[in-house]
């Protein structure tokens, strides 16, 4: 689990995607806290810069995990931009056999 979490290649199971989703919610909450503190204090340009620096790996991780989950379903990683598709990937089972994106992660 969590082998190459920033890579767009391969497939992941629902469990890894679900754990990734929880991690992203926690990190997003922390990042929003940083942004709220930055907005309520003077001279907080450093916190805003920190927020945007943290936003880059956050987005990369989110997109990579989503793409790998799409691959497990047999779809292109671009499918994750469809509204509510990411939520559906939490519950939908992946393909049981090897597909063009790799071996079944089960």
UniProtKB/TrEMBL annotation:
One of its GO terms (cellular component) is plasma membrane. Keywords: Membrane, Transmembrane, Transmembrane helix. It comes from the Bacteria. The keyword Oxidoreductase does not apply. The chain crosses the membrane at residues 15-35, 47-64. The keyword Transmembrane applies. PANTHER family: BLR8105 PROTEIN (PTHR34980:SF3), INNER MEMBRANE PROTEIN-RELATED-RELATED (PTHR34980). This is DUF805 domain-containing protein. It comes from Phocaeicola dorei. The lineage of its organism: Bacteria, Pseudomonadati, Bacteroidota, Bacteroidia, Bacteroidales.
């Amino acid at each position: 689990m969590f082998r190459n979490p920033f890579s767009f290649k391969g497939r992941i199971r629902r469990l890894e995607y679900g754990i990734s989703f929880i991690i992203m919610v926690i990190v997003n909450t922390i990042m929003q806290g940083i942004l709220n503190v930055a907005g309520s204090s003077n001279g907080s340009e450093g916190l805003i810069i920190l927020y945007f620096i943290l936003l880059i790996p956050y987005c990369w991780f989110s997109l990579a995990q989503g793409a790998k989950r799409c691959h497990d379903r047999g779809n292109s990683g671009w499918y994750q931009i469809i509204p509510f598709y990411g939520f559906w990937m939490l519950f939908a089972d992946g393909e049981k056999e090897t597909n063009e994106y790799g071996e079944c992660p089960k």
